[in-house]
Design goal:
By secondary structure, this protein is α+β, with helices and mostly antiparallel strands. The protein has one domain: Ferrous iron transport protein A (FeoA) (SH3 type barrels, Roll). The chain is built from 2 helices and 6 strands, in the order ββαβββαβ. Strands 1-6-2-3-4-5 form a 6-stranded antiparallel β-sheet. The model has no long low-confidence stretch (mean pLDDT 95).
Length: 77
C-alpha cells in the first residue's frame, strides 16, 4: 500500500517510492538521505499538522507536515 509519510503510524516502516515536489524540495530531501529506494521509520508526529520526525538509516530527520505529505512511501499491509 502506498501512502504519504504524514499518513504513516508512529513506529511504522516503509520504503520511499517517490518524492512529489519541486526540484528544490527533492534536492533538499535527497541531501538529507530521503530518496527513492531508502527505508524510513516514522518516529513521531505532532498534532494539528506539526512536524514529522523520520529515521533514515542512523539519522533522524524532521520535516514539515506539507513536505511529509509529498514523500510517498510503500508500507506492508
Amino acid at each position: 500500500m502506498i501512502i504519504s509519510a504524514a499518513e504513516m503510524r508512529e513506529g511504522q516502516t516503509g520504503l520511499v517510492i517517490n518524492l512529489s515536489g519541486g526540484h528544490g524540495m527533492v534536492r533538499r530531501m535527497q541531501a538529507m538521505g530521503v530518496r527513492p529506494g531508502v527505508p524510513v521509520v516514522k518516529l513521531t508526529s505532532q498534532p494539528f499538522r506539526g512536524p514529522v520526525s523520520l529515521q533514515v538509516g542512523a539519522t533522524q530527520v524532521a520535516v514539515g507536515f506539507g513536505i511529509a505529505r509529498r514523500i510517498m512511501v510503500e508500507v506492508a499491509g
